[in-house]
Amino acid sequence: MQGRPVYSGLVEGVATMVQRSDLNMILRVALVRSLLVLSCVVFPFVAAAQSQGHSPYAGLEAREIKSLSASDLEELRRGGGWGLALAAELNGVPGPAHLLEFRDELGLTPDQVASIEAIFTEMQVEAREAGERLIAAEAAIEVAFRSGEVDADTLRTLISDAEAARADLRFVHLSRHIETPPLLSQAQVSAYSRLRGYQSHPCENVPEGHDAEMWRRHNNCG
User: Fold this and answer.
1) At 127, is the secondary structure helix, strand, or coil?
2) What is the rounded CA–CA span in Å between residue 116 and residue 222?
3) Spatial CA neighbour of 61 closest among 166, 145, 158
4) Mean pLDDT score of the chain, rounded to an integer?
5) Which percentage of the chain shows pLDDT scores above 90?
6) Under DSSP, is residue 33 helix (H, G, I), strand (E, B) or coil?
7) Structural domain spans, the chain
8) What pLDDT is stored for residue 11 in this prediction?
9) CA–centroid distance for 126 within its chain
10) How confident is the model over 95-106, as pLDDT tens digits?
């Protein structure tokens, strides 16, 4: 019987320890949650403060020619389109490169393929030449600013040279989009747009309420 008070006191002591342990756990959880909330609020401001003043061009100073990326240089040197023929491409006027890519899907005849290949080959030669001139012109601008001795008159000449080369290059690509449509049927032109993932050609879908004949005439449908 004398052991019972001791036992009872032991139980109470353990219970108190458990309660204290639970309280410590609750406090710890609350602290962690508070820190998480604080980090979500404070860290964005810290990151913004650290990045404030950093130029979006940071890192580009390591380029060989600051105005041209490595992919730009590769595209120009291989005679690639460089996005210069979008005015034709996105208005349903096919170019030779992708016509040859989809020759089977478009059902191009041997004669069509031969004619388009000739256009493409000529385009590549001229595009590489104009591309190299553009690279050289941009490099000249780079050197002028690197030297620190460029003046307004010299700069205007350098820019004119670069823009002339760019204009020539754009003409090379866009003009070939003029040469290819006469070699194709209207069905092939429409199929080209579908294969490239563009909107369907207006000649295929006459809007409701429009006279079909007038619509096709207005859109130069064959």
Assistant:
1) helix
2) 21
3) 145
4) 82
5) 59
6) helix
7) 1-54, 63-184
8) 47
9) 26
10) 999 999 999 999
